[in-house]
Structure formats: structure tokens, C-alpha cells
Amino acid sequence: xxxxxxxxRVLVWLAAVWxxxxxxxxxxxxxxxxxxxxQDSPAAARRPVTETPQEYGPELVDxxxxxxxxxxxxxxxxxxxxxxxxxxxxxxxxxxxxVRGNQLGPMIRAGRPxxxxxxxxxxDEALAAVVAFIHHQKGEADELSGGRQPVVAEDLRTGDxxxxxxxxxxxxxxxxxxxxxxxxxxxxxxxxxxxxxxxLELLQQMLYPRGGRGGGPAPxxxxxxxxxxxxxxGPLAHRDEFTIALTDDDGWYRSWSTDTVTFTVxxxxxxxxxxxxxxxxxDMHDVLAYLxxxx
Length: 295
Known about the structure:
By secondary structure, this protein is an alpha+beta fold. It has helices spanning 2-22, 33-36, 58-71, 73-76, 93-97, 104-110, 124-142, 161-171, 193-196, 199-207, 270-278, 281-291, and strands at 176-177, 188-189, 221-225, 231-239, 243-247, 253-257, 262-266. Strands 6-5-4-3-7 form a 5-stranded antiparallel β-sheet, with no helix packed on it. Strands 1-2 form a two-stranded parallel ribbon. 23% of the residues are buried.
């Protein structure tokens, strides 16, 4: 009898293990063994094959390594294998199809604002070095295994806070206060921001604001001038090539054809978009260093 009970317990235990393995549970129905083993994660996916194998000299790769660590490592990890805010470049289809920077170069210089990547206006020498390093890492990774790596804190501490304050005073102080705003005239009070945001999260908020105190930035406001000469102002509700719309003071949605009215849009975040085109990599690091002092 005892042995039969032990056998029954073993069978129950084996059944439980099998159910976990195939993922039959209430929270995530239908998960398979492949899911349980992590095979649907980016780190488990096969890296794309390099279409045109390339070789670079060690001096160029080392120069690119240093430049990549200072300019790109805070998002992509200093080994280019991914970090908290950026993808693993050794798994990138664009890198796999790139030939000595013909695709990487334009992308690096223009950035991908829609994906949170700023432009990096590197000169030809620096760009060639970064491209060499990325391809070197791709070749190394093709022979190894491993997943994403965290952002290294030191990569976010390369800026000059004093230089960052000068950039801030020139480009940011019109809308932001760094020492509190008792009068409430400025929309962006940054006093103590380094206590609320740190490292990569602070950099991302600096480049692409998603919100802040009070629930986030104010929405864009539009002023529509009617054919009669009167004006209507309110939060922007919709805008495309053919239509402009707002919400008026009574909460009504009002829209006009763009060829029948004139209008101006006041977007409090437009200045950040403009700055992305003017920031150098040094400016970004310097302003971040300054913001990290606002405790």
C-alpha cells in the first residue's frame, strides 16, 4: 500500500511537470514547450546571415569601440548586443544587409525619431569607425550565444555638467526652470527631476518627453481664423492634409476644411523636435550630466 501511494504521488508529480512544460494554465493558455524554454524571445531567435562578409583593421575597430561606447552604448550596450533602451544590433536585418555603411551610415546620421533614436551627425572618419565596430561585433556574435545586456551606468556619465548648463540656459530655459518655479509661469519645472528619473530613463525623457508632473505636457493648441475674421482656439483634436479640428471651450468637436480657413498650432513639445536636429552627441551627454545634478 505505501509503495502504491508513492507511485501515485510520482504520477501526479510527473503530470504536473508535463502541464507546466506545455504551458496549460489559466494565465497563459496555449503556451507551448517552446515558449517555456524562451524560444520566442529575441535572444533565442537566429541571427540574420551577413549578406556581404567584411573585414576591418583592428585600429579602426578599436576607434569605433570607443566612439560607440560613448555615443551609443547607453542604449545598445557597449558591446552592441542590446541594452535596456535599444535593440541588439548583432540581430539587426539592416546590419546584416549593410555594406561598409551604405545603410548604417544614413540611419545613424538621420536617426529614427519614431523609435526613440536621435540623429548622430558623425563625420566620415568617426562614422567609418562605428560601422567597423558594429560589423566586428556582428561577426563575433555570429559565433557565440547570449542575450541582451544592461546599460552600463558609466556610459551615462561622460558629459560635462557645466557645459550642459550652458546649453540648457541657451536652448531650454525659455520653457523650463531648473530651480523651481514659484510663479508657475513655466510649464516645465525640472527642480528635483534627478530624484524622479535617473540614467537612461532621464535621457529618454529629455529627448522624447512622454509626460511629467501634472500628468504630462499640455496638448497642442490650435487657433483657427475663420473666413469672417473671427477666431476659435482650443486643444488640437485632429490634423491632416485636408482637415483641422479642435475642441472648443464648451467641449464641442469642431472641424474645418484646411482650404477654407487659416490656422496656427502651438505645440509645447515642438522645441524638443527642433533640438534633436541641433544636438551634437556631446550636447546630449552634457545636458544629461547637468540634469543629473538637479536633485
